[in-house]
Design goal:
By secondary structure, the protein is of the alpha+beta class. It has three domains: about 350 residues, no CATH class; about 200 residues, no CATH class; about 200 residues, no CATH class. The protein is built from 23 helices and 25 strands. Strand 1 and strand 2 form a beta hairpin.
């Protein structure tokens, strides 16, 4: 009953002080919400992203060449069988990727298919949601696989409407009928494929497949590296054209790539929200201390009529815990909404799509425990201080003359100073992030992305298998799209859609020795490419349509390459060779002599080709017919928003070949920019850090305002005496500001030291940021201004008091 009475009394007390209650609850809620949301994202992406059995044992096989570039090698059938015998490996699964089209329906649908070796089901260890997975009998080694298919969860929902009786139904892919044997769970999204089919592995030495490895329990990556290195070197000796000249093997965990790209950013955000939570907790502590000081007379009266100290402590702790639970409850609700917001800002492809990002039980328990701990820690201190009042002094003297003595003032000063210091660090990081993102937004592109989209078109299996047929097909596609009334220009860009385009390759210049480390980006394009993107021709000429269709050995380079290799002369007429440009039919078809010497006939202006932050690399542009893959892209410039005519473009593609289809994820070129990892990551950091910094600033200003307000309330009688003896309003204002000057100044100084100390770490985690003193000065000015306003408002109220009213205040 006593506990119930304490609880009811706490509710009544909090309802009588709505401003205090709202501020305290929001202070906790915002800190807990931000911490819970970011921790949920960190947990889902970095700690538990995969649904596979023992994902820590799964790994990718990566080769590091002399230039430090990562290469994911393909292995043929005999090589796969050898690597599966390595002692450190438990098993190996091989896969291949292909785009297929659903046929037999009204509208064909482009789908991504992953072909797996028959051990895939046991390798991944994920039971299907319905039916079965792939079995060894579906694809015996060297034999044609059975016509069976396992569906991805989203494809099952989209194409079959989530029908529960889908197992056993037929699915027609490029006019071949397959039987649906299973549906995978929602979190099984390997390769973001729509379908999973059995893979035919043969002894063909030129048929390569992607390997994924599973290490034996207890085997380290370093041990596997050492065992695989001599075997991979033997493979390279047998097939030198398929491997780098020099390389080292590196086993890469499934999540290593994502941790490298996003881990630092997420940990930085977690540190930011932890600071926000500390600021919120400090705010609650300030409010509880100040409010408790104002209730010293009440507590003294209750003690005088028989209340024991334990009873008073329990009452004050109950109020603190009620605030903590209310703040945690609201914080969890806000966190539930905030997780979706953070996920929306995550850069595409920067985290495993298998990750289930949501509030989970560990995070909820962590948040609840944190709230209760906060209530106990920040309620216990004032409760112990205020539960043993000096009855005689408190009952006989004014209760509003002091703010709780020297210890109380020091506690408030320390808390306010800590708030200001942490807020300064957050504002500095937010300023650096915003500056980096603004710099990125205004980076010169060298091309015009407006009103242009990139339309990807795959070539399906066993179609256009000779060079002439594929070249003609690509050209027909371009001509039909270019003839559309809304289209002003269309050009083929097989691998050259900026701002990250071309493939990295070593090259040779006639009469000169070029080290392997010096590489250029090779772009396969049509002659209309530069006009579509408004890239200027600086010297020479471009090849024409006739030269394109016969695969002429001609090349155009960018200005960076011309300056680097011909600084005092002209590149026009020079000879360049790309030895890596070799055919691999039927997947890669090359023009005759494609890796022979090519004549440089033109120089074009620089355009971004390695992201938005990296310097522009030397580029070589060659006719797209020089090397044609089973995929191409067509850049379409239109007079209307390009995505609005996508349906019409699809119709033109189908008129050329009804079995072919445009890929599902088509973007305009501005979308290509905003989906670049550095753009999306910079935007996420700038927005989230900016939001956290603004919240921290508001909380710090609120805490300071609360301290000054309670201080003014306690000193009302003193101010009245001073003004009665001749002090003016300016003197009172000076007194109030002086009382907060130490905490504000100390906080700013500590914040400056912390910001300078953390600037190197911030520059590492906030890509593209710089340690600018202007940002630091601006942040100090903003924070000092906010502190001045928070102090001025109650100070002005104190200076306006009537001396006679103040003297009668008690």
């Amino acid at each position: 009953m006593d506990l119930f009475q304490d609880f009811r009394y706490s509710i009544q007390q909090l309802r009588r002080s709505p401003g205090f209650t709202a501020t305290a609850v929001l202070s906790l809620a915002l800190g807990i919400a931000a911490t819970t949301a970011v921790f949920s994202v960190v947990y889902a992406i970095l700690l538990d992203p995969y649904p596979y059995a023992h994902p820590e044992q799964m790994a990718h096989l990566v080769l590091i060449d002399d230039a430090g570039h990562e290469r994911w090698p393909g292995l043929n059938g005999p090589e796969l069988r050898q690597i599966a015998q390595v002692k450190s490996l438990q098993s190996v699964v091989a896969f291949d990727e292909w785009n297929l089209t659903t046929t037999g329906g009204d509208i064909p649908d482009d789908v991504t298919a992953y072909y797996f070796t028959s051990n895939a089901t046991s390798f991944f260890g994920v039971p299907p949601l319905m039916g079965r997975g792939l079995l060894p009998s579906d694809a015996p080694y060297g034999q044609d696989p059975q016509p069976v298919v396992v569906l991805n969860y989203k494809f099952w929902q989209r194409h079959f409407g989530g029908a529960p009786d889908v197992v056993g139904k037929p699915l027609q892919l490029v006019h071949k009928t397959y039987t649906v044997v299973g549906v995978m769970p929602e979190r099984f999204t390997w390769g973001d494929a729509d379908l999973y089919l059995p893979l035919k592995v043969s002894n063909n030495p030129k048929a390569f497949y992607g390997p994924t490895l599973r290490l034996k329990p207890g085997v380290t990556h370093e041990a596997a590296d050492a065992e695989l290195q001599p075997l991979m070197m033997q493979f390279a000796k047998d097939m030198p054209d398929h491997f780098p000249k020099k390389f080292r093997v590196r086993i890469q965990g499934l999540n290593d790539h994502f941790i490298k790209r996003l881990g630092g950013t997420l940990y930085m955000l977690l540190a930011a929200v932890a600071m926000l939570l500390v600021i919120g907790c400090a705010n609650v502590s300030i409010l509880l201390l100040a409010r408790g000081t104002a209730r010293r007379h009440e507590l003294a009266v209750r003690a005088a009529i028989g209340a024991r100290r334990g009873r008073l402590v329990r009452q004050l702790l109950t109020e603190a815990l009620v605030l903590a639970v209310a703040g945690a409850s609201l914080g969890i609700l806000l966190a539930w909404k905030s997780v979706a917001l953070i996920v929306r800002f995550l850069p595409e492809g920067s985290f495993p799509h298998e990750a289930a990002i949501h509030l989970n039980v560990p995070v909820l328990l962590f948040s609840t425990g944190l709230a209760l701990l906060t209530g106990i820690l920040f309620g216990l201190s004032p409760a112990l201080q205020l539960s043993n009042p000096e009855l005689a002094n408190m009952l006989q003297s004014s209760t509003r003359r002091l703010i709780g003595g020297v210890h109380g003032r020091r506690t408030h000063n320390v808390l306010v100073g800590a708030q200001i210091a942490l807020t300064l660090v957050l504002l500095t990081a937010a300023g650096a992030a915003m500056q980096a993102f603004l710099t990125l937004m205004h980076a010169p592109l060298g091309y015009d992305p407006n009103n242009v989209m990139s339309v990807g078109i795959p070539v399906h299996d066993n179609t256009y298998t000779n060079w002439q047929a594929r070249a003609t097909y690509f050209d027909q596609l371009r001509r039909r799209i270019a003839a559309m009334p809304q289209v002003t220009m269309a050009g083929i860009s097989s691998n050259a859609t900026p701002p990250w385009n071309g493939f990295q390759s070593h090259f040779e210049l006639m009469g000169r020795s070029i080290p392997d480390q010096q590489q250029a980006r090779v772009n396969l394009i049509g002659p209309e490419y530069f006009e579509v993107l408004h890239i200027a021709l600086l010297q020479g000429r471009l090849w024409d349509q006739a030269e394109t269709m016969r695969g002429a050995r001609l090349a155009v380079i960018n200005a960076t390459m011309a300056r680097q290799y011909w600084p005092n002369g002209s590149a026009i007429g020079q000879q360049v060779r790309i030895p890596d440009m070799k055919p691999s039919p039927p997947y890669v078809l090359n023009a005759p002599g494609s890796n022979d010497w090519m004549q440089i006939i033109g120089v074009v202006a620089d355009a971004r080709n390695q992201g938005l932050r990296e310097p522009i690399k030397p580029s070589i542009y060659v006719p797209f017919t020089t090397q044609m893959y089973v995929f191409t892209q067509i850049l379409v410039r239109s007079t209307v928003p390009p995505l609005s005519i996508l349906r019409a473009v699809r119709a033109e593609v189908m008129k050329v070949d009804p079995d072919q289809q445009v890929i599902g994820n088509v973007r305009d070129l501005n979308g290509w920019i905003t989906n670049q990892p550095e753009w999306a990551q910079g935007r996420m950091v700038a927005i989230l850090f900016g939001g956290f910094a603004i919240l921290a600033l508001a909380l710090a200003a609120t805490g300071l305002y609360s301290v000054v307000s309670y201080s003014v309330a306690q000193r009302t009688n003193e101010f009245g005496v001073r003004m009665a003896l001749g002090a003016n309003r300016t003197d009172v204002l000076r007194l109030v500001f002086a009382s907060t000057g130490v905490s504000i100044g100390g906080g700013l100084l500590a914040g400056l030291v912390l910001s300078v100390a953390a600037s190197r770490l911030i520059a590492t985690w906030v890509e593209g940021s710089s340690r600018s003193p202007l940002i630091l000065l601006a942040v100090v000015a903003v924070l000092a201004g906010a502190a001045a306003v928070a102090s001025f408002l109650p100070a002005r109220r104190a200076s306006a008091v009537d001396p006679m009213c103040a003297l009668r205040y008690e």
